[in-house]
Write a structure and sequence with these properties.
Its main location: membrane. It holds the Pfam family MFS_1. One of its GO terms (molecular function) is transmembrane transporter activity. About 80% of the residues lie in helices and about 0% in strands. The chain has about 500 residues and is an all-alpha fold. The protein has three domains: about 190 residues, Growth Hormone, Chain: A; about 55 residues; about 220 residues, MFS general substrate transporter like domains (Growth Hormone, Chain: A).
């Protein structure tokens, strides 16, 4: 090595480390923005109904349509992100989100607001791509921790966006609140343009268009049925027919994915015990987690005239989410360190048990606001650690090139689970609402909370079963860089 080469070597290493330091906050910021913007519909539903003169059911679609478009776009973006055009895919998606954000700000009719919200929801598919970038371009010691934090901020984004949007809506009006989304998405686009590197060479990704359309149809029906609770009570036959159609579409999609040479999702990899178990835990656990979030926020806003509740305004109710976000982030920072000593599935089990404790706390103690804040904090810590541990379990048996695709499937499962949790909460509270009354009975919240305890118990047992397998298929030699292998025995050499 020449003297010049010896001099250049540390400079090159320093440059790489500098780029890594800049990349980590960029990836986390983009993941946080798309999650927060997609959740903007939650605190603004009432404002949309009153300002645009539509029913509350119609205004609810400003949230539902973002979740729908996100669930449909996620597997497609995950496949595109596995190929050579990942950077272009990220930038194009963020451009769509920015355009959608502009539509929500402009004084256009309600239909255009829905179009804008659908475009904003597409950004939810970027979380898995951020993980793929982190796994490809960060040093091994940083990639696992960064992927865990990306997973966490994609969850706590709602806790960040909710109070800010509510505050702006209260003092600046509906369009001002949506203006926040336009501002941060524009910043996210510029951040991605400057910071996101190109994908490694030698990759290819072909999108199975027919499979994507069939999956989109199935997911659309599933999430629609989960969101439209009144359909089950008023038009049961129609709801059942749509449910059967959804199952058939998803079955057709699964068969086509197994037969095609260019699958949208590698279904064979999804059948791996570690991946299958993790996705089952994500589905059931996600349902329970979102159920508790729904119960606490709704209980806090119930007026005193109902005989319980605290009658909080939308903005103050949003502040109740602060313990959720703060403790969720803390758990996300701690989990990678704990992961060095405890297997991922055991972390999932422990996290699910913590969320179950949040349900117990809410079911037994909610007479004052401090108890609600405590339950929300416990929920945030459990959700944060669960979300941070999940990628390690899946990516331990996933090739680097399939990171975006594997995690995108997990996020589709999470979206469906969240929608189901919201629907379950609505169904139990509706069942506990006496005829002629606007608010449910106090005991309806307890019943719904006990259902959540059962869901988290199932999640805990599923995760423990996954941990007991000590999967012999997991080879530490093939475990991905930066992500610890699944079994502790492979780390100890026993």
């Amino acid at each position: 090595m020449t003297a010049a080469q010896a001099h250049d070597q540390p400079v090159s290493t320093a440059l790489i480390r500098s780029e890594a330091r800049l990349l980590v906050p960029a990836l986390m910021f983009i993941a946080l923005v798309v999650a927060a913007v997609a959740s903007l519909g939650t605190p603004l539903i009432t404002s949309v109904a009153t300002r645009l003169h539509v029913s509350l059911d119609s205004a609810q679609w400003t949230l539902t349509i973002a979740l729908l478009s996100g669930a449909v776009a996620t597997p497609v973006l995950g496949r595109l992100g596995a190929g050579p055009h990942r950077r272009a895919t990220i930038l194009a998606t963020l451009a769509i989100v920015v355009a959608g954000s502009a539509l929500t700000v402009l004084p256009l009719p309600f239909a255009w607001l829905l179009v804008g919200r659908a475009a904003q929801g597409v950004g939810l598919g970027l979380t898995a791509l951020m993980m793929g970038v982190a796994r490809d371009h960060l040093p091994e010691e940083r990639s696992a921790a960064t992927i865990a934090l990306i997973s966490v901020v994609s969850i706590i984004g709602a806790g960040v966006g909710y109070p800010l949007a509510a505050l702006l809506a209260e003092f600046g009006g509906l369009r001002a609140a949506y203006g926040l989304g336009l501002l941060v998405t524009a910043i996210a686009f510029v951040t991605a343009w400057r910071s996101v590197p190109a994908a490694p060479e030698g990759r290819s990704a072909h999108v199975n268009v027919a499979g994507a359309l069939v999956l989109a149809g199935g997911l659309l029906l599933v999430l629609f049925l989960a969101g439209e609770r009144s359909l089950w009570s008023r038009h049961l036959a129609v709801a059942v027919a749509l449910a059967v159609a959804a199952v058939l579409l998803l079955c057709v999609w699964t068969v086509s994915e197994l037969r095609t040479k260019t699958p949208l999702v590698d279904v064979r990899a999804v059948r791996h015990p570690a991946v299958a178990g993790a996705n089952i835990a994500m589905f059931v656990g996600g349902s329970g987690m979102y159920l508790l979030l729904t119960l606490i926020t709704r209980y806090a806003q119930t007026p005193h005239s109902a005989g319980y509740g605290f009658g909080l305004t939308t903005f103050v109710a949003g502040l109740v989410l602060i313990p959720f976000s703060v403790l969720g982030f803390v758990a996300g920072k701690l989990t990678p360190r704990v992961r060095e000593r405890i297997d991922g599935p055991l972390l999932l089990a422990g996290s699910a048990a913590i969320v179950g404790g949040g349900f117990v706390l809410f079911a037994t103690a909610r007479s004052n606001l401090a108890e609600l804040l405590a339950a929300m904090g416990v929920l945030g810590f459990g959700v944060g650690s669960f979300s941070a541990a999940m990628p390690g379990v899946i990516l331990a048996v996933t090739p680097k090139s399939e990171t975006s695709s594997a995690m995108s499937f997990n996020y589709v499962v999470r979206s469906v689970g969240y929608s189901l949790g919201s629907a379950i909460g609505g169904l139990f509270l509706a069942a506990g609402t006496a005829k002629g009354r606007l608010f449910p009975n106090h005991d309806a919240y307890t019943t719904a909370a006990l259902v959540g305890v059962a869901a988290m118990a199932i999640t805990t047992m599923t995760s423990l079963a996954l941990a007991r397998r000590r999967s012999p298929e997991t080879n530490p030699i093939t475990a991905p860089v930066g992500v610890p292998s699944l079994g502790r025995s492979s780390r100890t050499g026993s």
